Amino acid sequence: MKLTRLPGRSCQVIALDLLGLMPRGEHLVVLIDYHSRWMKVDVVQSTSFEKIIKCLEVPLPDMEKLNLFDKRWLQSGVS
After folding, report:
1. Closest Cα partner for 31 from 44, 4, 73, 2?
2. Based on the number of CB atoms within 10 Å of its own CB, is 69 exposed (0-12), middle (13-18) or buried (19 or more)?
3. Confidence (pLDDT) at 54
4. How far is residue 41's CA from residue 60's CA, in Å, rounded to a whole number?
5. What angle do CA 13, 41, 9 make, to 5 degrees?
6. What span, in angstroms and rounded, lies between the C-alpha atoms of 14 and 77?
7. How far is CA 42 from CA 6, 13, 14, 24, 71, in A?
8. What is the radius of gyration, based on Cα positions, of the chain?
């Protein structure tokens, strides 16, 4: 097992996992920020590109309220 350093700020290192097929035919899309340990889980019926991208659209008011993301990262347009 190799230990890694904790990122210095939010959204510096994120992970996206696709889990499934679940018993009812759905998949789980899991987005994790390694710095804050914030996690977002969406249940989807399809793993199409459009559905996965839709899961990545995190509402800006939630991010600001929870202070999860660095505003410089949001303004940079990094995707």
Report:
1. 44
2. buried
3. 87
4. 17
5. 25
6. 16
7. 25, 20, 16, 15, 24
8. 14
| pLDDT tens-digit readout, 22-69 | 999 999 999 888 888 888 899 999 999 989 888 888 754 444 445 544
In one-letter notation, the amino acid at residue 41 is V
Amino acid at 27: H
CB–CB of 52/45 below 8 Å? no
Q: What is the pTM of this model?
A: 0.66
Instruction: Enumerate the H helices of the chain as residue ranges.
Output: 49-55, 60-66, 71-76
Separation CA 35–CA 8 (nearest Å): 7
Which pLDDT does position 30 carry in this prediction? 93
